[in-house]
Amino acid sequence: MSRRALLSFLVISFLTLLFAMPMHAQTLDTDGDGIFNDGDGSGIIGDNACTGGVTVNCDDNCVGVYNPNQTDTDSDGSGDACEDNAFDLTQAPEGTIGYAVVNNATLPDISGSEFTVEAWVKSGSTDLTGGIFSRMSYLSGGGVSLAVKGNVPRMEIRKATEQSTSTVPYKVIAEDAITAGTGWYHVAGVLTNEAHNHPFTTSCTPAAMRQTPHMDIYMGGEFSNCATIASGYTGNAGSLLLIGRLTESMDSYYEPNTSNRFEGVIDEVRFWTVARSQSELQQCMNQELGSSAECAIDQTKLKGYWRFDEGTGGYVTDSSGHGYQGVLYLYDYTYPRDMTGQWNGGWGIGYQFGGVDIDADGDGYKSSEGDCDDSDATVYPGALEQCDGKDNDCNAVTGDGTSEAWLNSACDGADADQCADGVYVCTSGVQSCTDNTQSHTESCNGIDDDCDGTVDEGLLQTIVCGLGQCAGNIGLGECQNGDWIPITCEPFAGATVEVCDNADNDCDGDIDDGLSNTTICGVGECADNAGAITCIAGAWVNNTCDPYAGAVTEVPANALDDDCNVMTLDTPVNVDGDGDGYSEMQGDCNDTNPFVSPAAAEVFGNGIDDDCNLLTYDSAPDTDDDGDGYVEEPEGVTSGAPEVGGLVQGDNGGSSLADCDDTNAAVSPGAVEIMLNGIDDDCNPATLDSLPGTDDDGDGYSENDGDCDDMNAAVSPGSVEVPNNGLDDDCNEATYDNPEDIDNDGVLNGTDNCPAAANSAQKDSDQDGVGDSCDNCLNTANADQRDTNSDEDDNTSVAGIQHYGNICDGDFDNNGIVEIKDFILWRPFAGQQTTAANEDMDMNGNGAVWTDDFTLWRGTYGKVPGPGLTE
Description:
The chain has 871 residues and is mostly beta strands. The chain contains five helices and 29 strands.
């Protein structure tokens, strides 16, 4: 027993006696499985390893792995829990030498630097000799090695010139030996520049401990011995880094150099570029680095780490992350040399690790760790599932290709369109697109159906075009933005002059548009008054005939209806002017005609109220005698007579509007009541009427006298205009309420951008100098306010007359929308100088109808004109 071991034994024995408790209670249980590392209290871990399931008074047979049953199938003192993954050189076939060669081209040089080499070893020979870790070169000279000679671990350092095996000036030999068949030993060699205190040994004297640099060797995490080296040491890293062999020199001339090979098992080889202390070695030697929080020392100086967890195979992985991978070799020395001096057997790959479980493909996982195909480095637990037909992550539930970035993204398949209607999927290890059957063809809908970037392209077909009585014209059309635009289809073929028949005769989209006619109205001296009527929906309406134009004060007894009012008597009530037996007061509605009286029979169709009874039809009751759109007996009413309010009672009890005077076009249920004219203009007695000569507000003036507000006594032609009160006091528009601000908006006429229309904010949206209140193109600059059709209705489809300047009015047919019909109206004048016939089409007023006007028109296509002014 060494002095260190003896000293340890005496100390432990003393403490045991002192505390009167079992020796093993004072020892360490690294893996926490209940079996102490030194369970027999000998002071040496593994010298009495538990075998055959025995767990009492023996050492833990696998100190770094939890194994409470201490199973040891081969009874070699090393538990099964830590035997599967190691570098077993004892199993090399007869006549071969096995070892690992690590690529050390960039492995740090250790010349003059601190370093640590450590490993776990187990002897397979009674005389264990050979290299554990070596960068010792006998060819290029020098280096460092951690080896065993005669069962005793040692660390050697040689300079470049020290190639002889007999000259080893720098070495440290352990005071403890490795015993064959007693299990695993942890061996560590340290080159340090730090002086320290250690127990005295044969070589480790106080002087040696103060010498820097010096070498230390540890056994089982305990200091074993030290030796000094010369200051300024300059070593030379070997050309090869060997594990399981001492140098690249293989043999003597005829016999193999068996002193180079390591006949045993090697595991957990670590190379550090730092001197590890005894406490640091003990802290981590029984655990794989990075596997436990207990081994939390700084690992940044770890430059090589070979765990030998691969199992079977020809390679060994560097777990330090620096990439110093190794290759396993067998050297066959059974063949004699040939004449060239080379071994016929040569170098060969294929040596098997001692265990049966490795990471054969180098992907970081073994079969026992879930690698379902250890011959393929793309297959292992947690791998990205590629679309390759393999179970990359070794989880059959995970679909093939689920980690592909393109999976389920949109795609256009093998159909005829360019639309991405499908998604990418992985089928039998091949990327495919689900869009392979449906093809979208272009249709006239304003949509890019086939996804080629163009809308409604190349679509032609026979279409029906035309409006009104031209509807049904047939020709070729082209699709543009979802609409079929005629190419050869003529929308005006068959058009005629517009007539009042509730039909679109000229095929312009409007019914009875622009139709007006003259009419006669009035009685007495006003019987020949003329006016105009307008056709709307097949009926003549909007009578402008004034039945009182030319009326004067009634002159009694002149046989004339001077005031054009049959209610004003011409002769005394008792005078029968025409000798028919009835005076006017007796109901004679025309006392100048003896054939007209209440006693006369109605002569059908002569246009005269013969019997002075308007309820007696002069013509067929469904005839519109005065052309105002209403008849005495409307359609559907087959009997009865006009009732109060212009209603006619039908056979079925229903009611309908009827004309109460079918001889006067100004009188009908559709007419507006004219106040004070003595006539029931709207055929509704409930609408009050008064004589126009009545002074309703008592200011001395009636409406006939020019009173513009006969409900306000302060307003009349005789009043004086009161400035700035907002009233036309004198009924004279020429007399301004505020001469300096005629529109009363607070802005004087000289600076007002709309002097005749109130606009106190002076808003001018298009900045053309004309305020919005009087601008006929609010959003388009037109300071000249040019409006060539201002006397017509620019848009009759809305209430009030809409006036728009030419520059914003592309609605040439005035139907309220800019559409293809307007272009058809514009087209015949293209390229012409402006005339009265085409001045509406000259939108910008430059004197010609040309492309600049078409550009203005196109900007309003599909919209309403304007905005402008509304009356």
